[in-house]
């Protein structure tokens, strides 16, 4: 997963940077779970189970969407989602430093429960435009 943050002009004292984190998922997301995510709301666990997800994954996925929505509302998360192959994804976040960017992924309920592989890459993103 990639974490990225870009400087916020509204923060005069605490500058944030752009960070990108990419990782592989231990599951293959499907178009239905991606559709729920893009709608900006967490689906109910039974709806995901009805689509073929395990109850454990469904519960963590619902927690994860709520987590990502909270980050977006707080101004931390700029974007998140899978790449076209649905096996890897990226977060783009506002973070003061690399450690803060890493915490965004490490506190993700899917990461904590092992549905996202432990190995991931974090890079600072230099925003040109």
Describe the protein.
The protein has 129 residues and is of the alpha+beta class. The protein has a single domain, classed as Alpha-Beta Plaits. Helix content is 36%, strand content 26%. It has a 4-stranded antiparallel beta sheet. It is globular, with a radius of gyration of 15 Å. The chain starts with 16 loop residues before the first strand and ends with a strand.
- Provide the CATH top-level class: Alpha Beta
Portion in beta strands: 25-35%
Strand order of the largest sheet: 2-3-1-4
Which CATH-level-2 architecture? 2-Layer Sandwich
What's the helix-strand series? EHHHEEHHE
Report the total helices. 5
Cα-based radius of gyration, to the nearest Å:
15 Å
CATH homologous superfamily caption: Dimeric alpha+beta barrel
**What fold name stands as the CATH topology?**
Alpha-Beta Plaits
Helical content (DSSP H or I, runs of 4+): 25-40%
Kindly report the oligomeric state of this protein: single chain
The major beta sheet can be summarized as: 4 strands, antiparallel
Number of strands: 4
Fold blueprint:
Layout (H helix, E strand, L loop, with lengths): L16 E9 L5 H8 L6 H6 L4 H19 L3 E6 L5 E8 L2 H9 L2 H4 L3 E10 L4
Antiparallel strand pairs: 1-3, 1-4, 2-3
Q: What are the key terms here?
A:
129 residues; alpha+beta; Alpha-Beta Plaits; four-stranded antiparallel beta sheet; 5 helices; disordered N terminus
Quick synopsis:
This protein has five helices and four strands.
């Amino acid at each position: 997963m990639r974490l990225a943050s870009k400087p916020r002009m509204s923060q005069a004292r605490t500058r944030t940077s752009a960070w990108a984190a990419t990782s592989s998922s231990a599951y293959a997301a499907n178009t239905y779970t991606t559709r729920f995510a893009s709608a900006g709301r967490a689906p109910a666990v039974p709806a995901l189970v009805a689509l073929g997800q395990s109850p454990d994954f469904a519960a963590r996925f619902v927690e994860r969407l709520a987590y990502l929505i909270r980050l977006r509302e707080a101004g931390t998360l700029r974007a998140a989602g899978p790449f076209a192959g649905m096996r890897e994804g990226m977060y783009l976040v506002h973070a003061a430093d690399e450690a803060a960017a890493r915490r965004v992924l490490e506190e993700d309920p899917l990461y904590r429960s092992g549905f996202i592989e432990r190995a991931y890459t974090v890079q600072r993103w230099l925003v040109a435009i």
